[in-house]
Specification:
Blueprint (H helix, E strand, L loop, with lengths): L1 E4 L11 H14 L7 E7 L1 H12 L7 E5 L6 E8 H11 L3 H16 L7 H22 L2
Parallel strand pairs: 1-2, 2-4
Antiparallel strand pairs: 3-4
Length: 144
């Protein structure tokens, strides 16, 4: 089950729960893993995202996505928290629709839950390449 919370914080053009769920499933399928149990995708406003980033990671700055895997695999995959503020901002900066940025961030969070890391340049390139391939596979659905 993929639960989506706070989608109303996104512009109406980016409120596509079908594509958000498809992005999560696509990431897990790409690693040959079934999405068993629960996965929550939470869209947070800027204030809430800053508070989460500070409380759990000790950071006092904006971030676009945070992923928290569940400790027990039988409980499900985990939680992906996406900053609605950063999704809008990054979409504007990159010149593409907010929906594309939302899907990118959801894929990024899903890959983190699957064990991908982006701290070292080599790992970051690998993760972003995978994320881009998955986004390209979803893009046909996004145009509908």
């Amino acid at each position: 089950m993929i639960r989506i919370v706070g989608i109303s914080s996104l512009p109406s053009s980016a409120r596509r729960p079908d594509l958000i769920r498809a992005a999560c499933r696509k990431a897990f399928q790409s690693e040959g893993r079934a999405l068993a149990g629960a996965l929550t995708v939470l869209f947070a406003d800027r204030r809430r995202m800053l508070a989460i980033n500070k409380a759990f990671l000790g950071h006092s700055y904006d971030t676009d996505v945070i992923a928290f895997p569940y400790d027990e695999p039988e409980a499900g995959a985990g939680d992906i928290i996406v900053s609605a503020h950063m999704a809008r901002r990054q979409a504007r900066e990159l010149g593409h629709p907010v929906l594309r940025e939302v899907l990118t961030l959801v894929l990024h969070g899903s890959l983190h839950l699957l064990g991908y890391d982006d701290h070292r340049p080599r790992d970051r390139r690998r993760m972003f390449a995978k994320q881009d391939r998955l986004l390209d596979a979803l893009s046909l659905k996004a145009k509908k």
